[in-house]
Amino acid sequence: MKHCLIVLITLCFFRFGLLVSNETDDGKVNCNDVLSLEAQRAVGGAVAKLGLVLLEKLQPGSEQPNIIISPLSVSLALAELALGAKNKTEDKLLEVLNAKGLPNFHETLSCLQEQLTVKAVTMASRLYLIPDVRVNQDFVDRALNLYKSEPAHLTSIEEVNRWVEESTKGHITNFMSSLPPNVILMLINTIHFKGEWQSRFDSKFTVKDIFYIDKNTSVQVDMMMGSKYPLSMFVDRKDGTQIARFPFQGNMSLLVIMPVPAHGNLPIAAAKLNISDMYENFQSEKSMHVKLPKFKLQYKQDLRQALTSMGLGLLFTGPDLSRIAPVPLVVSGIQHASSMELSEEGAEASAATSVTLVRTIPTFAVNMPFIFALVDDASYMPLFLGMVTNPNPGATTEQSDDPKIETESTMKPSKVSQNDGTLNDSPHMENMLSYMLNMWKETVPKQFFRHQEMEDGN
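^ that's the sequence the OP posted. Answer follows.
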């Protein structure tokens, strides 16, 4: 039996500078007819739901303590495969894509892909075909028109790796060591994001600080600092989860979701997330003391097991992909590779010679395991999702006491020195108790407090 191999490759970089593309698909899809805000958010929600379910299935482990996936890349590849599917196979693919009931799903996803190419996002797709093997031209044309999947002859592994390296700006090399036997087709999708913080960090104030992997283990990381960083955030009072939004230029945002230690199971927290609800609950920006780890992480995973548990096991046993080719086809694997770099590179120089950090202002310190999402602000579509349990996996871990909870009454002013930017107090865990209390007071009627004062007086 011939084999159809899908390879997903994604790459995410957070660096200074915008990368813009004006590529179009020659007007094959009229985006003005399908790209209403309602349609964007419906498809964005479908991509988010797939990504969050997939993230829940992929557990961090000792070898890969951090998970980075691109729900958009996975959705694009599965949607392209659905173009060649029939009957139950097509139904299951659309079900997992959350596309059932969404009008013009393929066209809307295609237009969102095009729209993102002017937001510091570069995407490339390639449809590799074995020479002299008959593939339905209608499938090739639709893949090209909808998802810009350029057809090419599959001649050697060297040529494939060369294209992957070029499309990922040289950051993924020698991706494949060999071709699977009897391969007839490969779908390759790459995504690269290069953006600039809207409010940038100053590298002079990046310091070594503690990241608490769990209540007994910690690791030293490079921590970016912002003394009066404009941050939009809220606290989920049910779970105590802190959720903050770091905007990039070009209407993209990095959402950071950090459960408190008592609710620190990241997969469980991921299963409860709703990106649309997050945007509705974000408060207006407030000046805060921010600590955000600087890191560069890589992740590689075969998604076969995770997608099988989501109902797509038939892809690997006996799918109906007869719209692709008249010969029987199965999917031999779905490879997903991702990389993410978070840094302050390109930050504006500060005119001040020293910065005073007063701990009585609210603090958002990302110094324990967290979930992140890189989201398009218009469609609420996550380009990347991930869990970070150790932002410095190459470093030696240390034994540490259960992190101390610091409340407003125990907070003390501290300074960042002019010379090295180090904090003069010991590492700690800020848990936003004062911020939570203030936010709660803002939302509860004042009559409640007067009633409580009367009861206390009695």
